[in-house]
Design goal:
Length: about 300
C-alpha cells in the first residue's frame, strides 16, 4: 500500500509540531513525561519573581514557578502557579514563603512544611498559604524614612545651636574674647621672662649660695659643740661642789649626834627632822640637776630660753 504525497507531508508536519512543542517545554524546564504536581499560591505582590524561579524545601530545589497571573476574582491578589517535580509530600497547611535569594536581587519560593498537621497531604491543584519574607531592600525602605526623620531633627537642632552661638558671640563679645586672649598671651610672656631672670640670678649666685649654706652649717656645728662643752663642764663642777657640801653636812650631823653639850642641845626631835628634810631636798636637787641640766644651765648666743 502506497501513501500519497499529501499524507506524507501531513505526517511530517504533525511530527514537526510535536517536536516543537516538546522542545519548547523542555527549554522551559517542563518534562511532559514526568508526573508533576501543580499548586497555586496567593500573594499580595511578587516584586522580582518571574517564571522558572526555583521552589525549594529545606534549601533543596523541588520545583519551579510555572506562571503568574492576577486573581480574576480579586485584582489585589496575584496567583502564582508552581510545579513540584519531586515526589516529596507535604501537608496542605504548609506555607509558601516568598524570599530574596541574594543582595543583588532574585526571588524564590520556599515551602515550609507544617509538621504538626502532616496527616492531610497536599494534592495536585491545591492552594497553599503564601507569605512574603521582608528582604534587604524592603527593610532598608522601612528604616530609611525613620533615619531621614532623625537626620532632619538633628540638622534642625544643629541649625538652632549655630544660630544661638552666632547670637551669643556678637561683635562686642568677640572683641572682649580677643582682648582676653591678648592679655593672657602677654601674661604668659611676662611669666616666661620673669622665670628666665630668676634662673639667671640663681645661676650667677650659685657659688655664693653654696658658700653661705656651708658657713651656716659650720657655725651651727660649732655652737652645738660649745654649748655641750659648757654644759658638761659646769654640770660636773656643780655636782662635785654639792657632793662636798652634803659630805660636810653629814659630818656635822654625825658630830652633833655624839654625846656632847651641843649634841644634847640639838637632839631635839624638831631640829633633827629639819636637818633630815634639808638633806633630802639637797639630794632631790642633785637628781633633778642630773636629769634636767638644761633647766639650770642654758647657754645660747641667741638668748636664754626658759624651760
Amino acid at each position: 500500500m502506497k501513501f500519497s504525497k499529501e499524507i506524507g507531508i501531513g505526517f511530517l508536519a504533525i511530527i514537526g509540531i510535536l517536536m516543537s512543542f516538546f522542545s519548547y517545554n523542555y527549554l522551559k524546564g517542563i518534562n511532559l513525561f514526568d508526573s508533576n504536581r501543580n499548586f497555586k499560591i496567593k500573594y499580595s505582590k511578587v516584586d522580582g519573581l518571574s517564571t522558572s524561579d526555583p521552589v525549594t524545601l529545606n534549601g533543596f530545589k523541588i520545583g519551579r514557578v510555572h506562571k503568574i497571573n492576577f486573581n480574576p476574582n480579586n485584582t489585589k491578589e496575584l496567583i502564582v502557579d508552581i510545579i513540584i517535580e519531586n515526589d516529596v509530600n507535604f501537608s496542605n497547611t504548609s506555607i509558601a514563603e516568598l524570599y530574596e535569594t541574594g543582595l543583588i536581587g532574585g526571588k524564590a519560593i520556599a515551602i515550609i512544611p507544617d509538621y504538626e498537621n502532616d496527616s492531610i497531604i497536599a494534592k495536585d491543584g491545591d492552594f497553599i498559604n503564601g507569605i512574603i519574607k521582608p528582604g534587604l531592600t524592603e527593610l532598608v525602605n522601612q528604616i530609611l524614612p525613620q533615619v531621614q526623620l532623625q537626620v532632619e531633627a538633628v540638622m534642625k537642632n544643629a541649625e538652632i545651636a549655630f544660630e544661638n552661638i552666632n547670637n551669643l558671640f556678637d561683635d562686642k563679645t568677640r572683641n572682649v574674647l580677643q582682648k582676653s586672649i591678648t592679655d593672657i598671651s602677654n601674661l604668659t610672656l611676662n611669666l616666661s621672662n620673669t622665670s628666665s631672670q630668676i634662673s639667671k640670678l640663681i645661676e650667677s649666685n650659685t657659688y655664693n649660695i653654696d658658700r653661705s649654706l656651708s658657713d651656716i652649717r659650720k657655725t651651727s656645728s660649732n655652737l652645738r659643740t660649745i654649748t655641750d662643752s659648757i654644759a658638761i663642764n659646769n654640770l660636773g663642777e656643780m655636782t662635785k661642789n654639792i657632793n662636798n657640801i652634803i659630805t660636810n653636812l653629814e659630818s656635822v650631823v654625825s658630830n652633833l649626834n655624839s654625846d656632847g653639850t651641843i649634841g644634847k642641845l640639838i637632839k631635839e626631835e624638831t631640829i633633827y627632822e629639819n636637818l633630815e628634810k634639808t638633806i633630802n631636798d639637797l639630794n632631790a636637787l642633785i637628781n633633778d640637776i642630773k636629769n634636767k641640766p638644761g633647766r639650770y644651765i642654758n647657754f645660747s648666743v641667741f638668748g636664754r630660753k626658759n624651760d
